[in-house]
Amino acid sequence: EELAEAQKRTEERIEELAEAQKRTEQRIEELAEAQKRTEQRIEELAEAQKRTEERIEELAEAQKRTEEELRLLTREVHKIKVDLENVKDQLGALANTVGYTLENEAYKYLPKLLKKCFQIEVLDELKRDFIEIAPQRFLEVNIIGKARKNGQEVVLIGESKVQLRISHIKDFLKRLEKLKSILKTEVIPLLVCHQATPEAKKFCQDNGVLLFFSYQFK
Predict the structure, then answer these.
(1) Contact 161, 136 (CB under 8 A)
(2) Beta strand pairing status for 120-122 and 137-149?
(3) DSSP string covering 162-201, please?
(4) Is the pTM of this model over 0.85?
(5) pLDDT tens per residue, the chain (218 residues)?
(6) Where would I find the beta strands (DSSP E) of the chain?
(7) Are 205 and 189 in contact (CB under 8 A)?
(8) Virtual torsion, Cα 132, 134, 137, 143, nearest 10 deg
C-alpha cells in the first residue's frame, strides 16, 4: 500500500514536471518569437540607418552646391557693387559737370541781369570759392562776388541747382546765416537753376532770395 502511494506521488510529480516542461517549451517558443521580432527590428533599424546615411550624404552634396552658389553669388554681388560705385561716380561727375556749366554761365550773364532787374552793380568777377568759417574749416560757395546796391557795397552769395526745391533753399539759407556773421556786411542771396517748382519760386520770393533761370542767360 505504501509503495502504491509512493508510486502515485511519483506519477503526480512526473505530471507536474511534464506540465513545467510544457510551460518551459512554450516560454522558449515565446522567447524565440521575441528574438525573431528583435532581429527583424534590428534589420529595419539597419535599413533606416542606411537611408539616414544616404540622406546625410545627399545633404552634404546639397550643402556643397549651396556654398558654391553662395560663393558665385557673393562674387556677382561684389561685381554689381563695384559697377554701382562706378555708375555713382559717373553720375556724380556728370552732375558736377552740369552744375559747373550752369555756374560758368551764371558768372558770365548775372552781372547784366542783376543790373537790369535789380539795379545791382557787380564790382568784380563772380567766381566759386571757399570761405573760412573757423580755423582750418572752409565752406564752399558756388557763386560769390562784391557788388553795389543803392550806393552801398554788398556781397553776392549764390548757389546753382539743376532742379530747385524748397529743401535746397532751406539748406542754402542755413549756410548763408553762417557766412553773414563772418562777412560782416550785407549779403544778397541768389539762386540759379534750370527748373524750379512753383513752391520753390514762392519760397524764394517770400525769403528775399533772387532767383534766375538758365534760359535767361542769353
Answers:
(1) no
(2) antiparallel
(3) EEE-HHHHHHHHHHHHHHHHHH-S-EEEEEEEEEE-HHHH
(4) no
(5) 899 899 999 999 999 999 999 999 999 999 999 999 999 999 999 999 999 999 999 999 999 999 988 888 888 888 877 766 665 655 444 444 445 688 889 999 999 999 999 999 999 889 989 988 888 888 889 999 999 999 999 999 999 998 999 999 999 999 898 888 888 889 999 999 999 999 999 999 999 999 999 999 87
(6) 120-122, 127-134, 137-149, 152-164, 187-196, 210-213
(7) no
(8) -30
Phi-psi region of 195 (alpha: psi -120 to 50; beta: other; left: phi over 0): beta
Joined grid coordinates for residue 127: 567766381
How many CA atoms within 13 Å lie on the side-chain side of 74? 6
From 95, 127, 125, 90, select the one nearest 111 (Cα to Cα).
125
Nearest-10 crossing angle of helices 198-206, 166-183: 30
- Cell numbers linked to 84: 554701382
